[in-house]
Amino acid sequence: MAELFKHIYWADIGQACLETLSMLGAALGFTVLLGLPLGVLLFLTGKHQLHEARVVYRLLSVVVNVLRSLPFIILLIVLIPLTTLLVGTSLGVPGTIPPLVVGCTPFFARLVETALREVDRGVVEATQSMGASTWQVIRHTLLPEARAGLLAAVTVTAIVLVDYTAMAGVIGGGGLGDLAIRYGYQRFQTDVMVVTVLLLLVLVQALQMTGDRLVARYSRR
Fold this sequence. Notes:
By secondary structure, the chain is mostly helical. It has helices at 10-44, 54-69, 72-78, 80-87, 92-117, 121-129, 134-145, 147-167, 175-185, 190-218. It has a single domain (13-218), classed as MetI-like (MetI-like fold, Orthogonal Bundle).
């Protein structure tokens, strides 16, 4: 067994896991913080919604679609100057978070918009008929009614972020992806590649199971 995993240094593996979790936590937090209001705005300005504004909706849709269509590896490279300006480096955990947020915020915003569209329109109209403002409709009706869908959206986004953190290893982003590329791929250390892939699979499975339980718990169906 020792010979099979002769290139494995568990201290490095542990550090890479911590870096991946740090990137995931920070990027997911900023993505939800930015993507939730963007998704709500997309919903509100959509056709036949509370504040229909076709020009605003189309403009937002173009921006969201453009960012979603860019392959993440290209986005990583394109954003290097901006990332360096914001955090002082384009390497390691700090240098990976801005591209992760830019890459996943539009994706999450679309999921939020979809979740809000599934809310029963009659419930929204009933809230409005009682004199509720737009903010009150959002806070007390839309978000609570769409809670299960929003939790599912967060789960899917978190899993996408795990994939992106692994991809960020191509430009020295740190974490398990960086370890897999530097040692598993470039130095042909298959055991390192196998261990990092298994750890990423375990992380994704844990996120999916947690998300599924939360959705089941808060679902009204």
